[in-house]
Amino acid sequence: MAAHGSYAPVVEFDGKKQRNALTAAENAVRALASADADRAAANARRAAELDQIGVYAGFAEAVVAAASDLADAGPTSAQWDGVSAQLEPGPLAFLVEELRN
Hints:
elongated
């Protein structure tokens, strides 16, 4: 008997994995604020890797870009703007605003 219609694959959402993505993103922001480029980039990539819903793809790219040209004093206003632009309103966006000031 042939199946009718098309079916989307069932993907299980892992809440712990998504929470770990958020933690990695938070660590990336804190490392960026501390001018630790390697740690910022590594955590941003980890956030994107763990992310199951596409929240951190653009964020990771923005953090890695900022980290690649990071001054000893920390991110410039333009670099923070690039990271902020990739975030939805919420706790992580608030953390970016808190640390940039």
